[in-house]
Amino acid sequence: MDSIRIRGGRPLHGDVEISGAKNAALPLMIAALLTSEPVTLSRVPALADIATLSKLLSELGVTLTTPENGNNGRSLTLNAANVTSTVAPYELVRRMRASVLVLGPLLARFGEATVSLPGGCAIGTRPVDIHLAGLERMGARIALEDGYIRAEAPGGLNGAEYHLAAPSVGATENLLMAAALAEGETVLHNAAREPEITDLIHCLNAMGAVIEGADSDCLRITGQAKLGGTEHQIMVDRIEAGTYAIAAAITGGSVALLGARAAHLETPLECLRQAGVLVEETAQGLTVSANGQLKSVDVTTHPYPGFPTDLQAQTMLLMALAEGSALISETVFENRFMHVPELARMGADITLHGGNALVRGVSALRGAPVMATDLRASSCLVLAGLAAEGETLISRVYHLDRGYERIEEKLAALGADIERVES
Ligand code: UD1
C-alpha cells in the first residue's frame, strides 16, 4: 500500500486548477442508465471511485468510451443501449456506497434491480431506508434478502408525493432519477439541495426530464416515457476547492483556486474570513491567502447550504492551529472524528464528547507517522503534514485516491515537499 511523505513548513503559493466534482460525477454517470442514447460527460476527474463505478456500469452492460477529442481522458461517453444485467454485486458496492444510486434508474427503466446493501463504513452506519421508502411510495416492491435489496416494479413506477425523513443527498438523487421515468408527477419534500443535485437536475432536464425546483427543498418531477442522450460538463469540486483553501491558510501561503465557485462555498468561506483568512473572488475563481495569526471559530456541520461535513476534518485542523478554542459539532454523520487521534499524535489538543470536539489551538504541530481512515480524514492529515514541523508519513493513502485528483502533483506545484512512497 502506498504512503505519502511530507516535509512540512513550506507556505503554498501559486495557482491550482480545481477538478470536476466526484460527488457530481458519480450520479451523472449513473444517470446514463436512464436512456438508450449516449450521454457524454466532460471534466470527469481521474479518481479511484470513478474507476470503481465504471467497472460496475460495464458489468451491467453499459459501454464507456473516451471520445477522441477528450483531453486526458476527461470526457467520457456512456451508452446504456444494451443493458444485460440489473444486478449490482457486493464486491463493487462495498467499495463505494454511491453504487446504490443504480437502484432507482434500473428499477424505473427495466422494472427490476438487485443491489447489494452497502453496509457500514468508517464514518457511520449510513442506512438506505429513505431511498427504499421513497421507491416503495412510488409502487416498488422491495425485499431484503441475503444482504441484497431486491426491487421490482413490473408495471413501472408511479409518481408519488414523498417527504424525506432527512435531506439525504443520495436518496434525493436516487428518487429524482427514478421519478424522471415514472408515470405521472412526483413531489419530493425535504429534499437535499446540494449543488451536486442541481447539477444532476440540469443534466436530467437536458436529457428530456421535466424537473422543477432546483436549489430548493421541494422538487417536482413530471415523469416521461423515455429520456434521450446529452452532453454535460460536470461542476467543479467545491470540497476539493475548500481543501486547497484551507491548505493555503494553514501554511501561511496564498493560492488561486482556478474554477472554484464562491457561491457553492458561502458557509465555509465565511468561516475562513472569521478565522482571519483573506478570501477574494476573481474572474478565474477564488484566491485564498493567510493574513497573520489564525483565530478560532465554532463550526457545526449541516446539510447544504450549511457547513459541509466533507470539510469538517480539514477545518478542525485549521482550528487546531488557531488562537483560542473552537467547538466543532458534527450533526450529519455520527462517527466522523477518526482524524482526531491521528491529529493528537501530531500535537493537536482536541477533546471529544459525542458529536462535539473541543479544539484548543496550539502554536505548532509536529510531523509523525499517521494513518488515513476515510477520504476526508486523509486530506486533513495531508494538510496537517504540510503545516507541521518535520516529516509526516501517511499510510493507507488509497482513501485519498478515491476523491482527490493528482493531489501530490498539485501540492508539489504549489511548493509543497511531498512525495508518494510505493511499498
Ligand atoms: C453524500 C456525499 C458525501 C457527503 C454526504 C453528506 C456522495 C457520493 N457522497 O453522501 O460525500 O458526506 O452526502 O453531505 O455524494 N441517511 C439515513 N437514511 C438514508 C440515507 C441517509 O439515515 O436512507 C443518513 C446518513 O446515515 C447520514 C445522513 O443521512 O447520517 C446524510 O447522508 P446522505 O446525505 O445520504 O449522504 P450520502 O448521499 O451517502
Structural class: alpha/beta
Mean pLDDT: 95
| Separate helix tally | 14
Shape designation: elongated
The share of residues in helices is 25-40%
Identify the bound ligands: uridine-diphosphate-N-acetylglucosamine
Which radius of gyration do the C-alpha atoms yield? 21 Å
Kindly estimate the percentage of residues that lie in beta strands according to DSSP.
15-25%
Q: Which residues form runs of ≥5 with pLDDT under 50?
A: none
Largest sheet: number of strands, sense, barrel closure: 4 strands, mixed
Distance between the termini: 6 Å
How many strands?
24
Strands ordered across the widest β-sheet: 22-23-1-24
Give a verbal description of the structure.
The protein is α/β, with parallel strands linked by helices and 423 residues long. 31% of the residues lie in helices and 24% in strands. The protein has 14 helices and 24 strands. Strand 16 (278-281) and strand 17 (285-289) form a beta hairpin. Helix 4 (103-110) packs parallel to helix 6 (169-180) and helix 10 (312-320) runs parallel beside helix 12. Bound molecules: uridine-diphosphate-N-acetylglucosamine. Uridine-diphosphate-N-acetylglucosamine binds next to helix 1, helix 5 and helix 6.
Summarize the structure.
This protein has 423 residues and is of the alpha/beta class. It has 14 helices and 24 strands.
Question: Which helices and strands occur, and which strands form pairs?
Answer:
Elements: E1 3-7, E2 13-17, H1 22-31, E3 39-42, H2 48-59, E4 63-65, E5 76-79, E6 87-88, H3 90-93, H4 103-110, E7 112-116, H5 129-137, E8 141-145, E9 148-152, E10 161-163, H6 169-180, E11 185-189, H7 195-206, E12 210-212, E13 218-222, E14 230-233, H8 238-250, E15 254-258, H9 266-274, E16 278-281, E17 285-289, E18 299-300, H10 312-320, E19 325-329, H11 339-345, E20 349-353, E21 356-360, E22 369-371, H12 375-387, E23 391-395, H13 398-403, H14 407-413, E24 417-421
Parallel strand pairs: 2-15, 3-14, 6-7, 10-11, 18-19, 22-23
Antiparallel strand pairs: 1-23, 1-24, 3-5, 4-5, 7-9, 8-9, 11-13, 12-13, 15-17, 16-17, 19-21, 20-21
Bound molecules: uridine-diphosphate-N-acetylglucosamine.
